[in-house]
Amino acid sequence: MKKAITVLFLFTAIFASCMAAGEDVMERRILVTGNTGRVIFELNDSDAAESLWNQLPLEAEVSNFSNNEKIFYPDDSLNTANTPIAEGGTGTLAYYRPWGNVVMFYGPFSSNGSLYGLGEAIDGKELIPTLSGMLRIEKEEQQ
User: Fold this and answer.
1) What domains lie within the chain, and their CATH numbers?
2) What pTM value is reported for the model?
3) pLDDT tens for residues 47-66?
């Protein structure tokens, strides 16, 4: 009986540790800092989000595109395997594979098979349309 309880205890500890590790992945946040403030995005648990995460920190020029998005280019292309198609609207962070740019949406958009979801803005999404010039993109320090 003691052996069974010990095994159960170890299994529970390992399971809890694995769950905690999984939660850390789900709470990956990035800071996008520009001339008008900062936007915090929470990344999803996709290969493309992991690819972006692994390139941080980086500095990139932000550009206007259309009437609902700001874009920047990461240093390297992102791996889109196991990455969902982007859906949503204001505050969506996405990757447009054909051009290799990261998109910060500040308005509604139409999904398409080349636009992959990376995450969502959780703070400062109202600042996305005001960003211009150079951005600093970095991992948020977890406390």
Assistant:
1) 27-139 (2.40.100.20)
2) 0.81
3) 999 999 999 999 999 999 99
